[in-house]
Known about the structure:
The protein is an all-alpha fold. The chain has four helices and no strands.
Amino acid sequence: xxxxxxxxxxxxxxxxxxxxxxxxxxxxxxxxxxxxxxxxxxxxxxxxxxxxxxxxxxxxxxxxxxxxxxxxxxxxxxxxxxxxxxxxxxxxxxxxxxxx
Length: 100
């Protein structure tokens, strides 16, 4: 009897370590985004590579892109919550200005 040696070995995906962003790094990223008019122009890859050259952070351009997406998502969730809970009404009474 011949043994079947055609066993397929499934390759495991290499898991990259997550980057732990410090408050200073997030602040640098937000300031860079505010200063630049053409957000992700001409391409996202070029835009974020320029950011990494300026700030000299230890990250890749796609990690920065994912962080920006995450920050946008969290901001939109916070804005939706603020508008739905009536927290915006308190701002008008106390003279607190909105981020908008």
